[in-house]
Amino acid sequence: MKDCEAMTRGPAPSEPYRGDLFGEIHLADMTDAAPTPGIARYFPGLAICAAAAGAAGWLSDHYGVPVILLGLLIGLALNFVARDARTHRGLDFASHTFLRIGIVLLGFQVSIAQIVALGALPFAALILIMAVAFAAGLAGARLSRQSPYAGLLAGGATAICGASAALALYGIVGKERLSQAQFALTLVGVSMASALAMSLYPAIAAELELSDAQAGYLIGASIHDVGQAIGGAYAVSDAAGIDATIVKLARVTLLAPVVLLVSLVIGPARAGPSRPSWRRLGMPWFITLFLAVVAVNSLIDLPAVAATKALAASKALLLLAVTATAMRSRTDLLLELGWRAAAPVMAASLASFAAALFFVMIGVGD
């Protein structure tokens, strides 16, 4: 009799799905979908990103390939991991927060004295070269029927400091206006163009019989990546390397004003109530901190080891940001874009070199 009553009552409230296969599966799904507490939510994405970035660093050290390019390629090859939602928090944290901290640390390489040492005329010519690169990037995007924001990133990366500038500008543009796939392809193009320029531009300078000062200005004003610009110039001579370092770091100094100007012109990425122009003058927090670090570096003679450690940390964080961005990109969109996506980078790179060579030939930078 008691057994009959138990069968009539059914399972106890604490065990609602016992004997029900569908209910047990549903209960298991609910358990798996439960949110992971605390910092553990970021671990899967960060761990995979760190492993990929470490592999990129190892390959770069042993084979001499630019580490940013390797991080992009490895990230694209592993982008299937982003299908698992558990990786999203970590990858997004790396691609956004690590990027901004890396930009801030880059400020330890820059000081106001570098602009003063360059001189008024070479600095004015440098601004014109950068403007030409921006215009060429936008024109290349228009001719290849790409988004103008892709041209903006290509021009900015070419004009200022390669992938670092592209990452900073993408923080303003946002994935709402330019897909991560297009952004990743822009970074690949910028990194490859910079690596190619490091090999070709010193040879062109030697063929044209440029002086050390001219070669340093040409290479420092036209090669995108900081390390590759300085390395390419030192391949000419030590004097050319010193000149190129001053010119290149002067370009890096202009990162904050350019990002501020772009933020003012294009406005916020996310939809929302329109803000008055005076409020759009507010800089992103990481650019404000970048300027603060530049000011400290200009006023205080920091130990050389501090700048070295800051540069290493900046490179590591930017590598993680690039790798995470590539992992979150859709390769099917990359295939749809095809060769046209490389047009803005090609146009900006060629225009930047041509403008720098023109100013060198008329005597700027002697």
How would you describe this structure to a colleague?
- It comes from Sphingopyxis alaskensis (strain DSM 13593 / LMG 18877 / RB2256) (Sphingomonas alaskensis).
- It holds the Pfam family Cons_hypoth698.
- With 366 residues, the chain is mainly alpha-helical.
- The chain has one domain.
- The protein is built from 19 helices and no strands.
- 47% of the residues are buried.
- Going by helix content, strand content and strand pairing, the class is mainly alpha
- What portion of the residues fall into strands of 2 or more residues? under 5%
- What radius of gyration results from the CA coordinates? 25 Å
Which outline best applies?
globular
Helix content: over 70%
Question: SSE order in H/E notation?
Answer: HHHHHHHHHHHHHHHHHHH
Average pLDDT across residues? 79
The major β-sheet equals: none
Please report the total strand number as a whole number: 0
- Tally of helical runs: 19
Summarize the structure.
With 366 residues, the chain is mostly helical. It is 74% helix and 0% strand.
List its traits.
19 helices, mainly alpha, 366 residues, single chain, disordered N terminus
